[in-house]
């Protein structure tokens, strides 16, 4: 099956580089290029790609607004947005994840890293490193108080205890293999629990499970270190 990719970046040279790399890969093809967010949304609706490789900082409608528009459109439910950012803790990345993005890549990513990232999100997985997960979720909590207590429990009430446990470990940035080792179960079992949680919580993908885990208070970031004066 061919993975259909849309490129959204205001730098023509970077788009050309990505196009050459992607189209040299047998199972991938580029279906369109956008120079700003408005064009990215329009082309996504026209071509319905599997993955949109989205730059955050573009003139006019930026990648954040474009991501929100794409992920809110029910007709584009099968499209995944992969964010391109200069820094792993770009202040806009957390907002993009909240809007529905499936993960992110640094613009200094290697060729293999880019292709693997596209494959990962096309398969419905999240592309979030543990370090970035902690940093990004900390930003969520600076703007949104977690729905702790009764509200948080109501959101998670459909999950079994094991599904909550797996979801919490995923939210801490652990991979399926790491979760399987910790719980002494198979990777297949972990994937099954993740998939059931996705279905029950009506989440687009694993990245959204991470968001829900922190917003409901299922998982909380470690306390910030306090530096002693002088």
UniProtKB/TrEMBL annotation:
<protein>
    <submittedName>
        <fullName>Response regulator transcription factor</fullName>
    </submittedName>
</protein>
<keyword id="KW-0804">Transcription</keyword>
<feature type="domain" description="Response regulatory">
    <location>
        <begin position="4"/>
        <end position="122"/>
    </location>
</feature>
<dbReference type="InterPro" id="IPR000792">
    <property type="entry name" value="Tscrpt_reg_LuxR_C"/>
</dbReference>
<feature type="domain" description="HTH luxR-type">
    <location>
        <begin position="152"/>
        <end position="217"/>
    </location>
</feature>
<dbReference type="InterPro" id="IPR011006">
    <property type="entry name" value="CheY-like_superfamily"/>
</dbReference>
<dbReference type="Pfam" id="PF00072">
    <property type="entry name" value="Response_reg"/>
</dbReference>
<dbReference type="InterPro" id="IPR058245">
    <property type="entry name" value="NreC/VraR/RcsB-like_REC"/>
</dbReference>
<keyword id="KW-0805">Transcription regulation</keyword>
<feature type="modified residue" description="4-aspartylphosphate">
    <location>
        <position position="55"/>
    </location>
</feature>
<dbReference type="InterPro" id="IPR001789">
    <property type="entry name" value="Sig_transdc_resp-reg_receiver"/>
</dbReference>
<keyword id="KW-0238">DNA-binding</keyword>
<dbReference type="Pfam" id="PF00196">
    <property type="entry name" value="GerE"/>
</dbReference>
<dbReference type="InterPro" id="IPR039420">
    <property type="entry name" value="WalR-like"/>
</dbReference>
<dbReference type="InterPro" id="IPR016032">
    <property type="entry name" value="Sig_transdc_resp-reg_C-effctor"/>
</dbReference>
<keyword id="KW-0597">Phosphoprotein</keyword>
């Amino acid at each position: 099956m061919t993975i259909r990719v849309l490129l959204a970046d205001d730098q023509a040279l970077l788009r050309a580089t990505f196009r050459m790399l992607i189209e040299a890969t047998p199972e991938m093809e580029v279906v369109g290029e956008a120079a700003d967010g408005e064009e990215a949304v329009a082309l996504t609706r026209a071509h319905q790609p599997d993955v949109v490789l989205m730059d955050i900082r573009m003139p006019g409608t930026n990648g954040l607004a474009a991501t929100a528009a794409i992920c809110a459109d029910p007709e584009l439910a099968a499209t995944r947005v992969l964010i391109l950012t200069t820094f792993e803790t770009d202040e806009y990345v957390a907002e993009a994840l909240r809007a529905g993005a499936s993960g992110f890549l640094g613009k200094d990513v290697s060729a293999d890293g880019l292709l693997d990232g596209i494959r990962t999100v096309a398969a419905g997985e999240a592309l979030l490193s543990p370090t970035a997960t902690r940093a990004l979720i900390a930003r969520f909590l600076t703007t949104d108080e977690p729905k702790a207590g009764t509200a948080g429990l109501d959101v998670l009430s459909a999950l079994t205890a094991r599904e909550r446990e797996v979801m919490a470990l995923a939210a801490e940035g652990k991979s399926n293999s790491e979760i399987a080792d910790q719980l002494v179960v198979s990777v297949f079992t972990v994937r099954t629990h993740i998939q059931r949680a996705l279905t029950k919580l009506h989440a687009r993908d694993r990245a959204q499970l991470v968001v829900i885990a922190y917003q409901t208070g299922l998982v909380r970031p470690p306390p910030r270190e306090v530096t002693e004066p002088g």
